[in-house]
Design brief:
By secondary structure, the protein is α/β, with parallel strands linked by helices. It has 11 helices and 8 strands. Strands 3-2-1-4-5-6-7-8 form an 8-stranded mixed sheet, with helices on both faces. The structure holds NADP nicotinamide-adenine-dinucleotide phosphate.
């Protein structure tokens, strides 16, 4: 039996992914911070597909919450899907640990979670880091949202002056670089675990834009805007295809053993594509990884040997 843990599996792309996985008889651990909504989805998956579906409380913006959640996972996992994430419009806010909310939620929490869960992953386990086409400052996706800046963990953890769009796109640049850096560390140690990055494409109808003012959100989710987005070169998709693609990357036989790559869903096509030029910078990625270790206060006894 295959078991997969996903963050943010009760809504949007994550929900479409867990429905597709449950239909393939995959057991699921739904990790997130909305217990009632997670329980409802777990009930639906159990009733509809006869799989095991459990919930795990985790707020990825809180290091204490991530440590507590990871400590409760006592079963073998075949994949970990780092899917939760948000764009945080309005005034800049900081997490309980004092880190800017976007970077804390999208990056540091998942970074710590994957360090702590690696010992639970099966020998050929898969880690899928949900990034975004916005990570690439040279792409239309990146230009529209706000070009990503230097992927410097310490600066980003304190970022008080960047726009919400830039905080988001830069968090996703860091996500791609985490995926690649994790892959390099795993390969150095002879591990068979894989680590890939995934862009689900622009799917404005999920909860991602809930922080935008009403009129801006309505415009972003309108059919006209989708048409314009396609015309100007935005990477567009829909919830069902992006969720099914995440499910395929997590458990599909076609992607077994595939690692160190960046996949993109676009118009019913899932393929490995090039990510931003800067994302291939190995020195920057190693620094991002090591700085992140310090920011999450990773103890030597928490760090798996394969990620050193
Ligand atoms: N939609 C797009 O156009 C698009 C494009 C590229 C990439 N993505 C990425 O795809 C992923 C899924 O997003 P979505 O579009 O499906 O949006 P969504 O429906 O808003 O889903 C985001 C999920 O993340 C969870 N989450 C947010 N903050 C969290 C926290 N602090 N702790 C735990 N969980 C948290 C949310 O839980 P709550 O319900 O509890 O808030 C929700 O389940 C995200 O990483 C997003 O950045 C989306």
């Amino acid at each position: 039996m295959t078991t997969i843990l996903i963050t943010g599996g009760h809504s949007g792309i994550g929900l479409a992914a867990v429905r597709a996985l449950a239909a393939e008889k995959v057991d699921l651990v739904l990790a997130g911070r909305s217990p009632d909504r997670m329980r409802a989805v777990a009930d639906e998956l159990r009733a509809g597909h006869g799989v095991s579906a459990t919930t795990l409380a985790v707020d990825t913006s809180s290091l204490a919450s991530v440590r507590s959640a990871a400590g409760q996972v006592d079963r073998k996992l075949d994949a970990v899907l780092l899917n939760a994430g948000g764009r945080f419009d309005g005034d800049v806010t900081f997490s309980a640990d004092g880190y800017e909310t976007t970077f804390a939620t999208n990056c540091l929490g998942h970074f710590l979670l994957v360090e702590l869960l690696l010992p639970r992953l099966s020998d050929h386990g898969r880690v899928v880091w949900t990034a975004s086409g916005t990570h690439d400052p040279d792409s239309m996706d990146g230009r529209l949202v706000g070009k990503a800046v230097e992927p410097d963990a310490v600066a980003l953890s304190r970022a008080a002056t960047l726009s919400a769009g830039k905080r988001y796109s830069t968090s996703k640049l860091c996500t791609v670089m985490y995926a690649y850096e994790m892959d390099r560390r795993l390969r150095r140690h002879g591990s068979k675990v894989s680590s890939i990055a995934y862009d689900p494409g622009s799917v404005p109808e999920t909860g991602l834009l809930r922080g935008l003012p009403g009129p801006a959100r309505r415009l972003a989710t309108s059919a006209a805007m989708k048409w314009v987005s396609r015309r100007i070169g935005v990477t567009t998709s829909d919830t069902a295809f992006s969720g099914a693609s995440l499910a395929a990357l997590a458990a599909g036989p076609d992607y077994a053993g595939v690692t160190g790559k960046y996949f993109q869903a676009q118009e019913n096509n899932l393929s490995a594509v090039r990510s931003a030029r800067v994302s291939y910078d190995e020195q920057r990625a190693a620094k991002l990884w090591d700085d992140s270790k310090r920011l999450v206060h990773l103890r030597p006894d928490e760090e798996p040997a394969q990620l050193r």
